[in-house]
Each structure stands twice: as C-alpha cells, then as structure tokens.
Amino acid sequence: IVSAHKIAQAGYVAVPLFGTQIHKPHLYYLMNQPMESTVVLWLDKDQQGSIMRKALGLQALLGQCVKTVSTEKDPKELTIKEIAEQLRQDN
Question: pTM (2 decimals)?
Fold first, then answer.
C-alpha cells in the first residue's frame, strides 16, 4: 500500500496487488476504468521470471498494452523523480 501511495504522489494511478498475484477485484477494477494510458505491472526484481507471463495474461484480459517494470527497490524506497523515470522508460 505504501508503494502504491508513493506512485500516486508521482502523479500516477496505482493499485496495490497485496503480493504478486493479480486477483479478481484488480481485474474488475481495471476492466471498469476508462483506459487512456498504459497499464504498468511493477514487481520486485525477484519476480522477473514471471512478470512477462502475468503481463501477457493481463493484456489479453484487458485488450490493452501492459508494460512491465522490475526493480531492486520497492517504489516506496525510490524518490518521486526515480519513479517517474521508471514509468517513462520503454520496457
């Protein structure tokens, strides 16, 4: 929750996963939101092996591009500027 709040401080909408799984409430939320921008799935570096599979599954369900971000540090440990830089990068 703290990382999602920090991302929101950088000017982005963030939904905490409470772990690494994308649960049905997350899907319902995303499916019922007007999507004007890319969805970003941000997980820790140790989840890098499964992040693409999760992103592709989410992309198929939403019918929208899903970008991935994987970092050593949690967003709560990054500065607002570092968060913005991560989210602007093409992955």
Answer: 0.77
